Write the structure tokens for this entry.
Amino acid sequence: MADQYTEGKSTGFGIAHFIIRLIVSAVVLGITAALTPGFSISGIWSLLLGALVLAALDYAALRLLGVNASPFSRGILGFIMAAVIIYVTQFFVAGFNVTIWGAIIGALVYGIVDAIIPGKSM
């Protein structure tokens, strides 16, 4: 019984963990939008919803295609997937606008900022 309890606790994935990861993702996304031409987010709710949609699309890509969409995790394939996910997010989130070049540059900036800020974002 104690093993089951500690085993369940060792995963560390609860609502607080999810909220912290969402905030870190939103910060990384906001920095990326600020540094990338052709990439704009118009408001805090668009930023938070964009981070949530990015996480959901990354999860879907990982489950369906087996590709981690982190720009530096899988080489060129991960970079392309990250750019596509950033570009597709604009169709789900109002106030999230990105051009194709903005998505490509944004994937690069997102990868660099994600490497600097601790915690897995995308």
About this structure: The chain has five helices and two strands. Confidence is low (pLDDT under 50) at residues 1-10. Residues 44-65 form the longest helix (22 residues). Helices lie at 2-10, 15-35, 44-65, 75-89, 100-116.
